[in-house]
Amino acid sequence: MPSRRMLLAQAASLAGAALTPAAWTAAAAQTRLADDPFQLGVASGEPTPDGMVLWTRLAPKPQEMGSGMTPAPVAVRWEIAGDEGLKRIVAKGQALAVAEAGHSVHVEVQGLRPGRDYWYRFTAGGHASPVGRTRTAPAPGAVVERLRIAYSSCQKYSAGFYSAHAGIAAEAPDLVLFLGDYIYEGAADGKGVRPHPVEEPVDLAGYRQRYAWYKADPDLQAAHAAAPWMVIWDDHEVANDYGDDQDRSNPPPDVFLKRRAAAYQAFYENMPLRRTQRPVGPSLLLYRSLAWGNLAGLQFLDTRQYRNHRTCEAVSDGKRIPADCPERFDPARSLLGAPQETWLQGQFRASQARWNLLAQQYLMGEFAGEGGKKVGNDGWDGYVQTRRRVMEGWRDAKVSNPVVLGGDIHCFFAGDLAMAPGGKALASEFVGGSISSLGRPNIDIVQRLGWNPHLKFGDGETRGYGRLDITPKACTVTFRGVENALVSRSPMRDLARFVVEDGEAGLKRA
Ligand SMILES: [Fe+2]
Fold it and tell me: Is the domain of 237 the same as that of 379?
């Protein structure tokens, strides 16, 4: 007979799994929680034609270290229905929320019908969660007439309120993409419109608290509860401008990788990811693809984990490098790492979709400053040949209608991508602004547009998100701006609209 200690270890190793030792499940099911444990809301993600991931994380006191949970496991029941009132339950079950996984739950639902809305909820400790809406992807190759996507990035909590997320929720999109900087790791500096934890997180407890603080926001919760999300990260989920085993402050690599492992674990615990995406030490497989019938294929990139270190540091002013620094053209350098590049090229060759969306962290086209003399070395401009290889991949595989979505820069930008400066457009890209993180003054943006003629539109002063309305004939992109992100519940407005027509590369103002 297994000992109590062994059962504990087994329960821990199952970390949120649906199947658990019966004895522990029974004990955990009887747990009563004094305070509502669902204060971080619910989420869904990773939709497939027959299911998706349902997520929650128990946190009765979100702003405290440990979120108000004891180390005991807690049984969480889940149910998913074909109607908003949860009368027609189509699947249900129980998962165990364990302390080793921050009391998070990742349920992988299967056996649902393709291209349908579903509603779900959790119960635990005598409490019920809010109801979330989610959706399955269409059947493989199915004829799909329309797809609405909202996408966003960069939600520095102290810098502004999340009216943009309330806007996303109101769109009732089929899918939400979050392209990085879900949290900011920085210490509280006393500036900004609302406070967050004081200490900069460097371990799992610290990152967990930072996520709990952010996720307690009701507008962010509304956006999660409105549609399935696909998430990728940028740098601030770990540390500013990090890549591989290095960040700007250059700690010893083994020290940095320990921090990265803690940050990746907290990321996994707080996102609607699959259990197969659970990190192993400092590694988490985040690049992946998603098909939406015959209409759209999406590839999601990880430009942080596998990159070569920043180039031309000897001639850097701390942020920017001379545009003619030869090392940045070195074909041996990669922003993605060889395995991810090989995977991406395979995706290009295999794609049957009419629209091919590349979801990644940055502005992908060149972003020259100082009259064209300087570029940054944190993004694609530091890895010129990776950018060239991606564009050659689109061209050589005759990828249908490539469109790039990005974040990171805290501005809205729309532009075209070509193999050579001034050449024929091969793809268009749309950076969908930031939810709350502060950008650049528009006087600077106007100057940048002059130095970078492939960029057709920019706005650095407005916070918001991007909306894609995709049909077989066109991809319409609307930049949605918040009137004032420094106050809560500010109204949204259309900032600009663009269209890319099927078979005709290059964006037009609409
Ligand atoms: Fe950011």
Answer: yes
Structure tokens at 388: 């060239």
Which residues partner with 18 through β-bridges? none
Distance (Å) from CA 308 to ligand 1 centroid: 20
Q: Are 115 and 180 in a shared domain? A: no
**Distance between Cα 194 and ligand 1 center (Å):** 17
- The CA-atom distances, in angstroms, between 179 and each of 9, 56, 417, 428 are 36, 20, 19, 17
Range of the domain at 9: 4-135
Calculate how far, in angstroms, residue 492's C-alpha sits from the geometric centre of ligand 1.
21
The CA 459 to ligand 1 mean position distance, Å, reads 15
State the virtual CA torsion across 16, 19, 22, 27 in degrees, nearest 10: 20
- pLDDT tier at 120, thresholds 50, 70, 90: very high
- Strands of the 42-48 sheet, one edge to the other: 104-109, 51-57, 42-48, 229-231, 175-178, 147-152, 464-470, 474-482, 492-501, 504-509
Distance CA 167, CA 222 (A): 9
DSSP string, 86-152: S-SEEEEEEEEE-GGGTTEEEEEE-SPPTT-EEEEEEEETTEEPPPEEEEPPPPTT-----EEEEEE
Give the residue with greater pLDDT, 333 vs 190: 333
Distance between CA atoms of residues 398 and 401, nearest Å: 9
Cα(119) to centroid of ligand 1, in Å?
A: 32
> Over the stretch 255-297, which tens digit does the pLDDT of each residue have?
999 999 999 999 999 999 999 999 999 999 999 999 999 999 9
Domain shared by 127 and 214, yes or no: no
Nearest alpha carbon to residue 156 among 135, 123, 128, 187 = 187
The pLDDT confidence band at residue 20, using thresholds 50, 70 and 90, is low
Q: What is the 231 CA–ligand 1 centroid distance (Å)?
A: 14
Residues 160 and 121 in one domain: no
- Report yes or no on 89 lying in a domain: yes
Is 188 exposed, middle or buried, given 0-12, 13-18 or 19+ CB atoms closer than 10 A?
middle
- Asked if 508 contacts 498 with a C-beta cutoff of 8 angstroms, the reply is yes
Residue 207 maps to a domain? yes
Domain boundary among 112, 135, 158: 135
What's the pLDDT at 354?
Answer: 98
What is the count of structural domains for the chain?
2
pLDDT at 5: 41
CATH label of the domain that carries residue 336: 3.60.21.70
Inside any domain, residue 142: no
Percentage of the chain modeled with pLDDT above 90: 90
Question: What pLDDT, on a 0 to 100 scale, did the predictor assign at position 21?
Answer: 57
Domain boundary among 108, 135, 162: 135
Residue 141 lies in a domain: no
